[in-house]
Amino acid sequence: MKPLHLARRKFEPFLLLLLCAGCAHTQVMSSSNPALEGQPVTFTVEINAPEGVTATPTGTVTFTDNDQNIGTAPVQNGIALFTTQLSGVGDHVIVAEYSGDANFQPANSPPFTEHITADDLFTLSVTPSLITQRAGTSSTLDITLFRNGDTTGPVHFSCENLPAGVTCSFQPNSVVPSSEGTGATATITSQGVRRAASLWERSPLLYAGFFIPALIARRRRWRWLLPLCVLAIFSIVGCGGKVRTLQAGTPAGSYTIHVTASDGSNTQQAAIKLKVT
To answer: Which residues pair with 157 in a beta bridge?
Structure first.
């Protein structure tokens, strides 16, 4: 008979699976970090179900700033959005407290540090912080530039950490920030799978052309062409009937890209989570 402590150890992984089957992982993302005092900031909380669980989290998320309740937002499709204005220069520690539901246990996010500044600079705000799209489609981001101070030049945009097959474009390419906020848009496009059409799809008349010699093969001197025609047709069907992949497109997965804004002396970035399905 095995000792009792060994028997317990044998069942520990199974018990851990049972306890965590309803666990959900929460993550906080910010539309603008740093932000100016009084500037609108949108916090996005993504609540991920454990691998293998098909249920979608519902419920609510309560946001705290340095342990003080600042508001609550509903969870829709596993995501909660909350927009607020933070006062007080310095670091604000934001925690998202997920209420849980019938399928998932309550959970708190790791602390997220939002910095509020009064420096003479511009800040970059990008929403949404999370986009989901199929390969071969596009999503639009709203960009707003705020400034604290009277002088600033044009700010130019770019994207960094783009995965394979993903491009980004801006309209317009540069703007001048303002205290009220100056807007622009970014388009994130992922590449779909490109395939070559089969030979039959490209030229169905080509096959008909091979039967022309068969019509004139009634004469004995042309009958030797008939076997060659049949062989050519079968060869093309075997090769041209298949569809070849020319470009694989953007692989499905989760990526973090960065929208960057720079006026030559000051650079700001916003992290965007891109999910390609």
So the answer is: 261
Which SS3 state, helix, strand or coil, does residue 95 take? strand
Contact 267, 260 (CB under 8 A): yes
- Condensed to tens digits (0 to 9), the pLDDT of residues 103-118 reads 999 999 999 999 999 9
- Does the domain at 1-118 match CATH 2.60.40.1930? Answer given as yes
Q: Tally Cβ neighbours within 10 Å of residue 272.
A: 25
Residues 6+ apart with CB under 8 A from 103: 22, 53, 55, 57
Of 231, 236, 247, which is closest to residue 203 (Cα–Cα)?
A: 236
Beta strand spans in 200-252 (E): 244-247
pTM (two decimals): 0.75
Please give the angle made by the CA atoms of 186, 188 and 194, to the nearest 5 degrees.
Answer: 150
Strands 122-127 and 138-147 turn out to be: antiparallel
